[in-house]
Model the fold of this input.
Amino acid sequence: MDMSQNINIYVINLDKRIDRLERLGGQLDDMGLKWQRISAIDATKATPDAFEHATGLAGPLGKMGMGDRACATSHNKAWRAFLESDATFGLFLEDDVYLSSDTPKLLTDDTWIKPGIDVVKLEKYDKGVSKVLLGQGFTLPNGRTLRPMYSRHAGGAAYILSRKAAAAAVQRRNICVPVDHYWFNANVSSMARRFKPHLINPGMATQREFGFNSDMAFIGRSERPKGWRMKWRRAKRGFYEISRLPQQLLAMAFLGARVTPIEWIENFQEKEE
Done:
């Protein structure tokens, strides 16, 4: 990677989606950023054995769909590519994401990522404003803030991992929830509980704001059971939702965590001016 860019970039892209690669690659090129393409696993063509080294069949959210297994395995390929480099941090992007114009300010220097921070979420998931329980944080070089997450926020289209986090993920080989829940939902993921992800607010990456949607959506997420199995799954998911409540209350009482509105903003500093 270029000496002026301290964080490697990996773009996860299906071979058939040249259009998306041209769009996101063009945006990165215009920003003067170097990046590496990772060929994604196509769930419409792959056989189940293509996922065995990276994913499990089922987890807390139910049986993994082919789309989620293909997505997780593709991300696993990107993590492995990162670990083959000598970079300390890697930025992982899905090809349907759009980045804010101030992205380069965070990639030319990684000293803003303080010791002990291993997972950073850049993406604001879905349209509009969401509310997430966030702890106390600090201001970044681009004017946004970085704060620890104490509640889940979906979306795995743009995030940074340390070598420690990536190595741990590759070694485990049993991703059994969608990759965004794997990193950003401590209710169902021991990896999220272990690495305590941080979130950039306002968000600086988006999919839904411009209608960019995954090709895997039509294949389905976790498979939907019927009858009593559906009721049982709903009960389990309800339990997972409240299982972190004691820790969340403690964070609010002693660590200054607050329910915080988050949104995607193209250029935070320009808006503030």
In short: The chain has a mean pLDDT of 86.
